[in-house]
Amino acid sequence: MSEGLRLRMEFRGPELPLVRALLEEASLRARLPASARGAFLQAAVEIATDAATRGADPQVVELRVDEGELLCEVGYGGAVPPPGRAEGHGAELAESLIAGIGAPARIDVRDTPHGTTVTLSAPLPAPLSAPSPGPVPALSPGPVRTPSATAPPAR
Fold first, then answer.
1. How far is CA 18 from CA 1, 63, 85, in A?
2. Would you list the DSSP string of 58-124?
3. Ramachandran angles phi, psi of 121, nearest 5°
4. Residue 149 vs residues 144, 146, 152, 154: alpha-carbon distances, Å
5. DSSP H or E stretch at residue 41
6. Residue 28 CB: number of other CB atoms within 10 A?
7. Residue 124: which of 61, 62, 65, 43 has the closest Cα?
8. Are 5 and 66 in contact (CB under 8 A)?
9. Per-residue confidence band for 124, with pLDDT thresholds at 50, 70 and 90
10. What confidence category does residue 115 fall into, taking pLDDT thresholds of 50, 70 and 90?
């Protein structure tokens, strides 16, 4: 599997269904195991929804493969909800979902003066490789029977 960027998209709140669909397709192509995919995608959508609620437009979602991990990074301006908006539970739910995947999946949150970046990561299976050619097994000794060229007489 090649390393690198799988998806990069600027989005706004109304585009969240598209974000989910594109994340799902990219995670399938990256071979994220089905056992982790649902929780990983839901966690990413929770963070993206939080970003759409809290941040200044546009938000950015990026999905990439790096050193055997699938990384989803959501960045947005602003670290606290605007006045009059309730505090969301997206980050708490995302943490719970990622914890359910098990180690070494993780979630990292970085606040900067310019905004917040949340990175979700989940391990990917080892790349598929062709089996190494080994010795050809020997045929078992024994009589070889070949069918006769003529059919037996009918009775």
1. 25, 14, 24
2. EEEEEEEEETTEEEEEEEEE-SSPPTTPPPP-HHHHHHHHHHHH-TT-EEEEEEETTEEEEEEEEE-
3. -140, 145
4. 15, 9, 10, 15
5. helix 34-54
6. 11
7. 65
8. no
9. very high
10. confident
**Among all chains, which residue has been given the structure tokens 């979602």?**
61
DSSP SS3 for 4: strand
Q: Structure tokens of 38?
A: 């649902």
pTM above 0.85, yes or no: no
Give the position of tokens 């929804």: 49
Q: Which residue from 73, 143, 155, 84 is spatially nearest to 110, judged by alpha carbons?
A: 73
Q: How many residues does the chain have?
A: 155
* Beta carbons of 66 and 72 less than 8 angstroms apart: no
